[in-house]
Every structure is written in structure tokens, then in C-alpha cells.
Amino acid sequence: MAATTHHHLSHASSLPKTLNHPLKQNPFSQLPVLSLRASKNLFRRQSLSLRAVLSQNPAKTLNATFQHCFTKSPDGFLYCEDTKVHPYVATGNKNSKFGIRNEKLQWFLDAVKAHPNELKLVGAHCHLGSTITKVDIFRDAAVLMVNYIDEIRAQGFEVDYLNIGGGLGIDYYHSGAVLPTPRDLIDTVRELVLSRNLNLVIEPGRSLIANTCCLVNRVTGVKTNGTKNFIVIDGSMAELIRPSLYDAYQHIELVSPTPPDAEVSTFDVVGPVCESADFLGKERELPTPAKGTGLVVHDAGAYCMSMASTYNLKMRPPEYWVEEDGSVTRIRHGETFEDHIRFFEGL
Ligand SMILES: Cc1ncc(COP(=O)(O)O)c(C=O)c1O
């Protein structure tokens, strides 16, 4: 497992407690499907191929019943009602920038037909959104997609791949919720995929790696303004933007021992960046920490370092690999001001 850290905490041995998802081998090798990487190779091999990305629309689907988070609107589109899906991570909606609208399917197929030497349609791809907690909707989507594929095949295309995307959620709240795994996703669509003799591609990201990492911080102070208590830390929205961007919950724990008589209060956990949006947690019940206390933000293995920035001249932190025995190895250097300045030299 890896940890992104500002300082090497001497309490690292307490970290593995909730970090229970070590990736000792490539997880894709355990999945009986083509990985994203494999599909890239595929496209490299078949240099004339095209990834067809089709939006879902039940208007074209016969006998489909949708009982889960998606509902069908009067204009025939799917709307996701799962309140856990923030609008910024919902991708399959009517006005989304992604994919190709169903009424453009024929236009799209005609365009492919018009370029037989340049384009080869090999599959259909959809991605429903992120932090999805039920796999049933993937079955709903697969029903739509195989019906599209039937339609596409009926026009003479040899379509071999269905890519059902990613987007499985994880237990960000650490409530003990058992959420579907990539295996559950495969099992949900297996029969349908086999019934059309298709190869299945899935693209789980977060559900494979999110809980392998945490962002390690130090408390720089505690303050009260108005009626709010704040724990101020050295980490910020620059290193982990999900709370600011999506109002996302990420579990927070103090990792240094606090005195047994430390008062428990409700805090917003905030960084030093000059934005009111710079928070990593809101309304958290925590013992009042002393300056220098270690504080971890869990589940930073996906969409943390990859989205990190140098906003407010906060250099990106180093990354460490933590073995199960607690030993720690640095796997990425922290950025320095000199690194940053280098981009402006010799111009
Ligand atoms: C097309 C596509 N596939 C897969 C993913 C991975 O999603 P997640 O990490 O939530 O599984 C994304 C994320 O935005 C995506 O856009």
C-alpha cells in the first residue's frame, strides 16, 4: 500500500489498521476480462479501429424495466437518482458532454461506413458515473448496450466488445458497508454478455485502489471563529481536491495518541490555502489535537495525487510505500520550490 505524506510520521505502524487492500500483484491479471491496458494494445494492433462510445437511452429498448437508481424521463433518457452520485461525476445524463446521443447512432454508423479504410468499429462503450453503490444499474446499462449492439450488428458491423466502464463506489464513510466489487459487476452482466458472444471490458479504478492509500498530514493549529471550530492542517485541497470539488466525504482520523482527557468537539478540518473551499472534512467529531499531531485522510488511492496541483505554491508531497510489517519506503520525491522554478528557467 502507498501513503502520500507531508512528513514521515513516527506512528506509521498505526496506519495499516484500516488500509487493508495491499496490491501485491496487478489486479487486472485476476480478472477474466480485458483490462484498459489490454484494450489499448488491441487498438494499437488494429490501427484502423475506432472506439465507439454510445450514450444509453431506453427509448430504443424493448421490454426493459428499470427499477434501480435510474429512472426513465418522458424524453426517454436515463436519470440517475442516487443522491450519492454528485452531479459532477454523473456522466450518462441527457446533457452530458460524454458519448454520442442515441438519435445520432445512425449518423455515427453512416460515418463509419463512409470510411471503411480508416475506421473499424469493434465495440461499444458506456460509463455510468462514479461512486455507484449498486451493480443492478450496470445490468440495466448492459441491456441497453447489447440492444444497441444488436442494432449495430444488424447493419453488418462485426462488434466484439462491450465496455461497461467503471464507477464502483467504496465505503468512504467507513461504516462497514459492503459494496459491490469488480467481480460482482462482471457477474451481473456475465449472462447478457455471453448471450451475445461479446468480450467484456470493465474499467474499475477507484474500487481497486482507493483504500490502498491515505493522505498524511500534521495539525498546524486549532481555532474557533464564530460558532465553528477548525483543525488546521498542512495538507489542503491542492493535494486532495475531492472534498472541495465534489463535496466528497473522506474519513479522517488522528494518528498520534491524544491525551485521554482531550475534549471531543466538532471540527471542520481545513488546509492553509486561501479558499473557503479548502477543507478536507466538515463537522467531524474529534479529540482536540495538539499542534504537530498526525492526521490522516483515508481512501486517497484514487483521485488524490493524480488530481493534485501546486496551487498556492504548495508543492506536491512525497509518496511512501508501507509494507504490512510497517516498514516504509519512499517511492516518489516531494516537489521542491526549485523543481517549480525550473519551468521558468532558460526561456
Ligand atoms: C470512461 C471511464 N472509465 C472508467 C473510469 C473510472 O471510474 P472509477 O475510478 O470511479 O471506477 C472513469 C472515471 O471517470 C471513466 O471516465
From TrEMBL:
Q: Which cofactors go with this protein?
A: pyridoxal 5'-phosphate
- Highest taxon in the source lineage: Eukaryota
One Gene Ontology molecular-function label: diaminopimelate decarboxylase activity
Per UniProt, residues of the Orn/DAP/Arg decarboxylase 2 C-terminal domain are: 195-301
Question: Per the record, which residues fall in region Disordered?
Answer: 1-21
Decide whether keyword Iron is in the record.
no
The family annotation for this protein states: Belongs to the Orn/Lys/Arg decarboxylase class-II family.
Protein name, please? Answer: Orn/DAP/Arg decarboxylase 2 C-terminal domain-containing protein
